[in-house]
Amino acid sequence: MTRESPLLTDLYQLTMLQGYYNYNMDEIAVFEFFVRKLPKGRNFLVAAGLEQVVAFLKQVAFQDEDIDFLKKDGRFQPGFLDSLKNFHFSGDVDGVREGTIFFPNEPILRISAPIAQAQLIETRIINILQFQTIIASKAARLTQVASQKILVDFGLRRAHGKEAGLLAARASYLAGFSGTSTVLAGKMFNIPIFGTMAHSFIQAHDSETAAFAHFAETQPDNAVLLIDTYDTERGAQKVVQLAPKLLQKGIRIKGVRLDSGDMIVHSKNVRQILDRGGLQDVQIFTSGNLDEYKLAEFAAAKAPIDGFGVGTRLITSADAPYLDCAYKLVEYAGLPRRKRSEGKATWPGRKQVFRSYDENENMKDDILTIKRDSLSAKPLIQPVIRHGELVASLPSLEDVRRYALSELASLPSYLKTNEESKAYPVHVSGPLKVLADEVDRRMDASN
Q1: 380-431, pLDDT tens digit by residue?
Q2: How many Å apart are CA 156 and CA 166, to the nearest integer?
Q3: CB under 8 Å to 349, separation ≥6 — which residues?
């Protein structure tokens, strides 16, 4: 496992740790990660990133080089720096399963640990959970529109760095994509990899037909030909003319790819050309600035497209590139705590989310309540780590993917639109409201 430096954090985490050290504050702190509100146009979110959070917590530790850097910085005391040599995560983690649908103010992760441990990891946890959840949620919208058609992540080259490209491949596959063009993601996560050719391959040949033939002969089991370098319809006609010659060599053309122009018009024209040429089994694959809205247009126009490569607008979640999310202290030293800042108030204490379903096994409503509450509904938050150790092996990515698809299938119909719908009902329980009032009275009396 590659070491991840604990210095990948905000400075204020370390300055707070210095304060905790100076005043012997080492009681158990409980933090919860949640989203305050949905991005515009979103009706739900898909939780993703728990596996990477666990991997981070299992290996986070300060090396001599980290401590030497902080010593040179000059603002940290020697005793505190010495204490960092023994830093490791020994606490508890509770969370929802990856792939779970969730809504505002519902915690998807809870950390319970000595306050220095729980505090330092805040930045990286938000970093991991926010990004993968954004991408999984975007991918889920595409999955719903594409139905059973092929969806491939094409986004690596437009990703905001290496890790973003790799984790976006994972998150999109989790949410129902067929695979990725990112080869290393295929190796790391056992995700199916897809690829065709670039326009440069065509341009490097003097003849478009020769380029098609060379690629097909080089990749006989994956002969997907890019036909829009010069003229899309003429490219399709060349494919028809080439197909019998390739068939004599035992090579069947698998598909053609369109990457520019009016995809609806071109796909219909190309389908006619291929069908007239006896190539009814050749698929049409499209790419180029696609998103769920484009796919909805294709579906409405009945464009004969069999698969989609989605890049920039997926990898950056272009219409909703961030979450209004938070990792907030809800308990310290056995006492519930809460923030009361205007517009950013939080609910106190360790919480649970219970979900009810209707007679068709569709999600009906959720109740946000205190952890010790017991309701006749499905509890979403489950133990993950106890005393620094996993309580059970994490599910495979394939299992997570199956679970995520079952979650999407259980969405009520009004949430399945890509237009903003009425809000899914999340009820705050009476006991949680009572607890918030008790915390407020206690804090008012002491401040």
Answers
A1: 999 999 999 999 999 999 999 999 999 999 999 999 999 989 999 999 999 9
A2: 7
A3: 30, 330, 331, 336, 370, 371, 432, 435, 439
Distance CA 361, CA 215 (A): 48
- Is position 161 within any domain? no
pTM metric for this prediction: 0.96
- What span, in angstroms and rounded, lies between the C-alpha atoms of 261 and 283? 18
Residue 163 lies in a domain: no
Distance of CA 269 to the CA centre of its chain: 36
Q: Name 101's bridge partners.
A: 46
Give tens-digit pLDDT for 217-241.
999 999 999 999 999 999 999 999 9
Q: Which two tokens stand for residue 50?
A: 């728990």
> CA-CA distance, 327 to 300, in Å (whole number)?
41
Helices (H) and strands (E) in the chain, counts: 16, 19
CA distance to 48, 92, 163, 167, 171, per residue, from 127 (Å): 12, 20, 11, 12, 14
Q: Does residue 260 belong to any structural domain of this protein?
A: yes
Domain end among 305, 339, 366: 305
The two structure tokens encoding residue 258: 């369109």
Tokens 């975007």 appear where? 138
Of 276, 305, 334, which closes a domain? 305
Q: Quick check: 1 pLDDT over 60?
A: no
Evaluate whether residue 80 is within a structural domain.
yes
| CATH code for the domain of 423 | 3.20.140.10
Domain that holds residue 276: 196-305
In this prediction, residue 2 carries a pLDDT of 64
Q: What phi and psi, each to the nearest 5 degrees, are found at residue 18?
A: -60, -40
Burial (CB < 10 A; 0-12, 13-18, 19+), residue 41, is middle
CA dist., res. 372 & res. 383, Å (int): 14
Cβ atoms of 134 and 127 within 8 Å: the answer is no
User: What does the alpha-carbon distance between residue 222 and residue 195 come to, in Å, rounded to a whole number?
Assistant: 8
Same-domain pairing of 423 and 332: yes
The percent helix, strand, coil of the chain (3-state, each to 5) is 40, 20, 40
User: Tell me: the pLDDT tens digits for 244-258?
Assistant: 999 999 999 999 999
Collapsing DSSP to helix, strand or coil, 124 comes out as helix
Q: Examine the domain organization and report whether 200 and 295 are in the same domain.
A: yes
Q: What CATH number did the domain enclosing 202 receive? A: 3.20.20.70
For residue 193, the 8-state DSSP code is: B
**How many domains, in total, are found in the chain?**
2
- Give yes or no for residue 148 having a pLDDT over 60: yes
